[in-house]
């Protein structure tokens, strides 16, 4: 089992390797996520309308 002091030392060494994104990268990525979410929501809304319309036509033809 590892020594607790050695473990803390290793954790600090690994934490020192972390590279945080810049503010500009965070803002750009966030904007891109919102744009993609909006595009996907519009796409799935249109697909839903298409499926609902097709299903209603089939149900009217059957019933």
From TrEMBL:
Organism of derivation: Paracoccus sphaerophysae
Keyword Transport: yes
PANTHER family registered for this protein in UniProt: PROTEIN TRANSLOCASE SUBUNIT SECE
GO biological process: intracellular protein transmembrane transport; protein secretion; protein targeting; protein transport by the Sec complex
Principal subcellular localization: membrane
TM region(s), chain numbering: 31-51
Functional description taken from the UniProt entry: Essential subunit of the Sec protein translocation channel SecYEG. Clamps together the 2 halves of SecY. May contact the channel plug during translocation.
Cellular component annotations (GO), alphabetically ordered: plasma membrane
UniProt protein name: Protein translocase subunit SecE
């Amino acid at each position: 089992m590892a020594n607790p002091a050695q473990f803390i030392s290793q954790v600090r060494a690994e934490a020192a390797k972390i590279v945080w994104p810049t503010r500009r990268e965070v803002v750009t990525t966030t904007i891109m996520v919102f744009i993609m979410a909006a595009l996907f929501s519009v796409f799935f809304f249109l697909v839903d309308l298409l499926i609902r319309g097709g299903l209603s036509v089939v149900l009217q033809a059957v019933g």
